[in-house]
Design goal:
alpha/beta, Rossmann fold, seven-stranded parallel beta sheet, 12 strands, binds nicotinamide-adenine-dinucleotide
Length: 342
């Protein structure tokens, strides 16, 4: 049985990865401090106990379930993590624990930097010492707002990073490379779709919610590109890495779409959606990423389209409209979320 640690495993990506690894009969362990008091661990338990689909696990009352077995702790707690590595002798470590996103990192520059870099250093050192293979989620945001008109591959020279989130991730990449454990560094596109710990702030997720709630969408810079990957495709990709680990740094996305293409896709799902082009709202990113290195190395063929990101969310919203507004799903403040939805 493969022993696997997922730091930040109660989050948007980690909770879905845990579930898949369980289903594949691996032995995943979550290490997380539940920053958002999130109830993803109760929802995982409901799925494992009752064999219900994710959409049904999102509507359970978390008070009716225990959390699945996990280890509560901060990623900066070296002693606790050392004990865990000694006990379980991990074959693989997925390192996801972080303050994630533009707003929370700008609001907590020092704290987010400390969590990111100190946590990564501890994990990289422990992986080296205990001979565990490390899979780190960096981000394609490190390429900046508007790097070039071309597809960006991993050799693109990153010159100046302005925002704190990307700075943290870039520095963490350097720490891993320097300490040189057996690593795979992924630079994912915006991961999107339904998860056991939703993140409504991600562009396809919040555009879908806004369209459903208000039947209108306002978009600026409609010609700007963004890169996306559906969350289940992302999890498929991790499984391929486990089965055929090959050290390196890889972009990982499946769709490069303009914002106009995104809103047109969403429009297809509604009869009466009002679209408007406005100036200067939202983030200014203009980014297309080349994921061919990952696809070739791991024989990865994404299976989901943009429709597969948004349709399950719309179906779910029809059942539980207030769902996206839960505080436990927000990485940003309520005020920032309200502004995004204005
Ligand atoms: N979701 C995306 O679109 C995306 C894209 C690229 C990269 N990533 C990266 O993937 C990883 C997971 O992102 P996510 O979307 O699941 O975000 P998330 O915020 O849902 O998950 C982060 C998890 O880390 C935990 N955490 C935060 N601080 C901690 C600390 N000090 N100690 C222990 N645990 C802590 C949180 O409780 C949470 O469960 C992150 O490293 C993120 O940078 C995400």
């Amino acid at each position: 049985m493969t022993q696997i640690l997922i730091t930040g495993g109660a989050g948007y990506i980690g909770s879905m990865l845990y579930l898949r690894l369980k289903q594949l009969n691996h032995n995943p362990i979550i290490y997380d401090n539940l920053t958002y008091n999130q109830t993803s661990l109760e929802r995982i338990n409901a799925i494992l106990k009752n064999r219900i689909p994710i959409k049904d696990a999102l509507t359970i009352n978390p008070k009716d379930y225990e959390k699945i077995d996990y280890v509560h702790g901060d990623i900066r707690d070296k002693e606790k993590l050392e004990g865990l590595f000694k006990k379980y002798n991990f074959d693989f470590v997925f390192h996801f624990a972080d303050i994630v996103g533009y707003f929370p990192c700008e609001d907590q520059k020092d704290l987010s930097h400390e969590i990111s870099t100190k946590g990564t250093k501890i994990i990289a050192e422990l992986c080296k010492k205990h001979d565990s293979k490390l899979i780190y989620n960096s981000t394609s945001s490190i390429y900046g707002l508007s790097p070039t008109e071309n597809l960006i591959d991993e050799d693109f020279e990153i010159k100046e990073i302005k925002d704190q989130y990307s700075k943290n991730k870039f520095e963490s990449e350097q720490i891993i490379k320097e300490l040189n454990p057996d690593h795979v560094i992924l630079r994912p596109a915006t991961v999107s779709g339904l998860s056991l710990r939703m993140r409504p702030d991600l562009l396809p997720n919040h555009f879908t919610y806004r369209a459903w709630l208000k039947r209108n969408l306002a978009v600026s810079d409609p010609g700007h590109y963004r890169a996306f990957i559906e969350i289940n495709d992302m999890i498929d990709a991790y499984v391929l890495v486990l089965n055929n680990f090959k050290k390196g740094t890889y972009n990982l996305g499946s769709l490069n779409l303009t914002k106009l293409a995104v809103v047109n896709e969403i429009e297809k799902q509604f009869n009466n959606l009002k679209l408007s082009i406005v100036q200067n709202i939202g983030d200014k990113r203009n980014l297309k990423i080349d994921s061919s290195r990952f696809c070739k190395t791991f024989d990865f063929k994404p299976k989901r389209d943009f429709e597969d990101i948004i349709v399950p969310m719309i179906n779910f919203l029809e059942k539980e409209g207030d769902f996206f507004n839960k505080k436990e799903y927000l990485n940003m403040t309520r005020e920032q979320w309200k502004k995004l939805m204005e």
